[in-house]
């Protein structure tokens, strides 16, 4: 008789952990669906609220403002109270924000709705990974991070062409009423299925014991470390084209430059997120395989810069080649996946969660800034052409406005060179 070792027993996983994680991961799918939703309704929103590019950019950014501010507090809440209750609250917050946005008659009300949606969405990734850590062996955590990120990309894809079809059929208000109902359904699903722990709750040492001085000490260590900031700035700048082009302005760009209707333009942007899905897996793997963090991060930035330059400034590219470049941009711009690992490694292991929270805050915060900046530059270069209540932006307006993304990518590449190489080892082990 062969005795089963303790480690093999721990690594044997039943169906229930996958169901619990899956229910939470569906909310991360929903979060990405919400993140990119405004991109397929930009003209509708301009007409509804009588606004132009700068205001649309700011409206899109409100989602990110709330999301960014909450990243570190969300991690504390998930550790302190478990991820289930925060997830249910977050889904209901998204439902309320969606209802408010759908019924909005003024820009201020719409911005408040997006702020609430962003606040609720900010819980999705952190709480999902907290559940993965509670329910799965440590050896499976990397896989769960990748699968969670992949499901988010599927949500982004669904938020482009499929959502564009829904907007065409039910208009943007009807679409957001649907998104509100979907959030309520997810809240019920999480309430019924998700459990914080597979067995009796085991308290985690540190903050769960009420150790506030330790929390602030770890926070101080992370904030004083320049490499924490280099990692976060790198992640935010390399992600900026995905936030500004992919999640908001890309559909309008493809419609104007290639004369596509909204559904076809959204289908092209969906290809960008297919590239993201595959690139996130590749860059994580190649970094672990080579035992290096900096080289793949820098290459990610360089390739993203080259590809975006081609998309923006080479005119008369055939549509099939433009779609290939969009796929390549999504694939190449996944260096920030490595930044999360590098950010943990350049800080003491006890502060790993806070380090990840800082990176996520800068990634999302710079995403918000890039959306607003593109909108402001778009309006600055605009000639004043109107069609009814909708401003008409030319291809040159978009190219001028999106030039700021080139600058951000360049800043990200510089930050990548400044990051300390950890050789995939924790700073504690290196004795640095």
Would you summarize the structure shown here?
With 432 residues, this protein is an all-alpha fold.
Give a topology summary.
Layout (H helix, E strand, L loop, with lengths): L5 H6 L3 H22 L5 H8 L3 H17 L1 H11 L2 H20 L3 H15 L2 H12 L5 H18 L2 H33 L18 H13 L1 H33 L3 H29 L3 H20 L5 H14 L3 H10 L6 H30 L4 E2 L2 E2 L3 H7 L1 H16 L8 H4 L2
Antiparallel strand pairs: 1-2
Helix pairs in contact: 2-7, 2-8, 2-9, 2-10, 4-7, 4-17, 6-7, 6-10, 8-9, 9-13, 10-13, 12-13, 12-16, 12-17, 12-19, 13-15, 14-15, 14-19, 16-17, 17-18
Describe the model.
By secondary structure, the protein is mainly α. The chain has 2 domains: 15-196, Up-down Bundle (Growth Hormone, Chain: A), CATH 1.20.1250; 209-432, Growth Hormone, Chain: A (Up-down Bundle). Helices cover 78% and strands 1% of the residues. The chain contains 20 helices and 2 strands. A two-stranded antiparallel ribbon has the order 1-2. Strand 1 (386-387) and strand 2 form a beta hairpin. Helix 2 packs antiparallel against helix 10, helix 8 runs antiparallel to helix 9 and helix 14 packs antiparallel against helix 15 (319-332).
Structurally, how many domains make up the residues? 2
The unreliable regions are 1-10, 202-209
Reading off the top of the CATH hierarchy, the class of the largest domain is best stated as Mainly Alpha
What is the CATH architecture term of the largest domain? Answer: Up-down Bundle
- Overall structural class, as computed from helix and strand content, comes to mainly alpha
- Principal-axis shape: globular
Order of helices and strands: HHHHHHHHHHHHHHHHHEEHHH
